[in-house]
Amino acid sequence: MEKSDLEKGLADLRSRIGNEFPIQGWNQETSRDAFWHFAQGTGDDNPLWGDEDYGAATRWRSIIAPPTFLYTFSSYSGAMVATGLPGVPALWAEDDWHFKDVVRPGERINASYAVAEVVEREGGWGSIHQYEETIYRRSDGGEVARVRRLWVRGERQRVKEKGKYQPRTKHRYSTEELESIAREYDKDDRRGSVPRYWEDVAVGDSLGQVVKGPLTVTEMMTWLAGSGAPFFRASAVALAYREKHPKAFVADPETGIPDFLMRWHWDEAFAQALGVGGGFDFGNQRISWFSHLLTNWMGDDGSLKRLRVQLRRPHYLADTLWLKGKVAEKRRDGDMLLVDCELNGENQRGETVSIAWATVALPQAHQTA
Question: In whole angstroms, what is the distance from residue 329 CA to residue 326 CA?
């Protein structure tokens, strides 16, 4: 991209700051099936997301959606192109969620998007930081949640030149390693219908763990089936999009066929040709894994109020991720009894790929006469 083109793109991007516009989502209405498909995409089998008899016996009196299910209402828009920088790829760097209410079946959710801030930093790849905010509202205008996101952008050629993400050799697992990981899944501890009371929590308590992986293309496709994606399009629909947004596509180096840049998530050669170490997970997929850990720990009677996740480095195909956390603080805020948590995600190489912070509201223990 010529410097003048980049400057023009940045000026156009800044002109959109604060201008809110609606997003066309993968989902527009909530349902039991949509909840369950999303949960399957995260590997979360909590019956609260899909078993109607189970949900009816909880404090919610129905099934509810996993907190980050809201991604599905903002995952099929042209927002990244309409308020992006064509030809300047973005890596998902951080989400900061604030949740106000749970989502039940039979609701219509509308999402709106706005660029919040654009910051230029010294250097090549990653020198443009784009902040955006998405707000989720019910059809009556009541706000359900909002998220502030950071995209780190860099020109494609600079991605290659800087070489920050060198090609990665996939981890080869022995039978013993795979069996060990399978046993680690048994340590996932879902609190479920047993309330976790605020009074029983102490600073330093472990949140337990969830294990994800080894990451496969099949797992990522399962995620996409439940969550959708802005570039999840086929045949004539994809062609129409390419004619309108040609810079959202990159030619396959082997066949010459234009394809969405999103392909770098699952195609090793395609990713490496663009300067990334290999195929890697989706940002909202990994953030939803942290939500899974928290909903396991807090139980059915808890509610997630805030989740901030930093995506420090890619989580590559064939890698395994352990997500863990601890209680950092407990406090009162009006009528709410809150627990602040610190979390991290570490792969089988011992690399920390994400850190996170969360706030959970827990119930008060029953008072005895």
Answer: 9
Sequence-distant (6+) residues with CB within 8 A of 129 are 93, 117, 118, 119, 120, 121, 150, 151, 152, 153
> What are phi and psi for residue 169, nearest 5 degrees?
-80, 125
Closest CA to 318 of 159, 177, 165, 163: 177
In this prediction, the residues of the chain whose per-residue pLDDT falls under 50 are 78, 81, 368-369
Q: How far is CA 156 from the centre of its chain?
A: 23
- Give 23: exposed, middle or buried? Use CB within 10 Å, 0-12, 13-18, 19+: buried
The per-residue b/e assignment along 289-324, b for 16 or more CB within 10 angstroms, e otherwise, is: bbbbbbbbbbbbbbbbbbbbbbbeebbbbbbbbbbb
Specify whether the CB–CB gap between 55 and 48 falls below 8 A. Answer: yes
Q: For residues 189 and 194, what is the distance between their CA atoms, to the nearest angstrom?
A: 12
* CB environment 203-226: b (16+ within 10 A), e (fewer): eebebbbbbbbbbeeebbebbbeb
Phi/psi of residue 26, nearest 5 degrees = -60, -40
**What are 328's two structure tokens?**
């950092």
CB distance 296 to 46 below 8 Å: yes
For residue 222, which phi and psi values (nearest 5 degrees)? -65, -40
Spatial distance between the Cα atoms of 40 and 58, rounded to a whole number of angstroms:
21
Structural domains of the chain in order of their starting residue, each with its CATH number = 1-30+65-163 (3.10.129.10)
Q: Is the peptide bond before 167 cis (omega within 30 degrees of 0)?
A: no
Instruction: Answer yes or no: are the C-beta atoms of 210 and 42 closer than 8 Å.
Output: no
Beta pairing partners, 258: 251
